[in-house]
Amino acid sequence: MYLYPIWVRLWHVINVILFIILIVTGLSMQYTGKQDYILVVSFARAVKWHNIGAILLTINYIIFVTGNIISENGRYYRISKKNFFSDLGKQLKFYSWNMFKSEKHPFPVTLDRKFNPLQKLTYVLAMYVALPLLIISGLGLMFPETVLNRFFGISGLILTDILHITMGFFLTLFMIIHIYTCTLGSKPSSLFKSMLSGFHESDES
Ligand code: HEM
After folding, report:
1. What integer is the mean pLDDT of 172-179?
2. 53 close to 22: Cβ distance less than 8 angstroms
3. Is residue 204 part of a domain?
4. How confident is the model over 44-71, as a mean pLDDT?
5. Beta strands in the chain (DSSP E)
6. Within a domain: residue 203?
7. Which of 69, 109, 172, 195 to mutate to test the pocket of ligand 1 (most atoms within 8 A of CB)?
8. How many domains does one find in the chain?
């Protein structure tokens, strides 16, 4: 079943590369001392590569949103209120219990349903909540003159920084859990192969 069109695969591989660059340079900026201690790259180099990576990630994100608006792929991200919590519960029960008893996936992949309810919710939260907040707060730090001086008596720049670091932390956590859940296809390597070839291997095989 062809589920991952070429533009999604290209967006995803660029997104992964940029995320890794941004995490490494972001951590370097946070932990590298001005003089004596360097974590992976020097502070100045980390700032330069973080800014370049951030601009490319923003462009890539615009491509993702536009692609989802103008192509059929966007329909997979639409959350329906019907059975929302019960479907989420079924999927959570599968991941935490039934999966270990080799039971079948409660929401097998079809042409109309690429993501299970939990996957869909985490993808929507990551792509349409956390990533925009990360990008907006990052732009605020890149152009500090655009940030409010004070907000309820607290420095606007510090609040923007806290928002940026928090979203970066959540998205890094998302990425780690995402890589794990991507091993839960019909075989541990199936979903990774799908992201390369575009074709989904049936869960029943
Ligand atoms: C080394 C890092 C990563 C690996 C190995 C990886 C792997 C995969 C794989 C195998 C899939 C296909 C399975 C599925 O549809 O769920 C996928 C889909 C997806 N990944 Fe990742 N991923 C990584 C990082 C990320 C990051 C950093 C993000 C976003 C912040 C992300 C967002 C997505 C989204 C939104 C999809 C669904 C795309 C679509 O079909 O519309 N991934 N990923």
Report:
1. 97
2. yes
3. no
4. 97
5. 150-151, 154-155
6. no
7. 195
8. 1
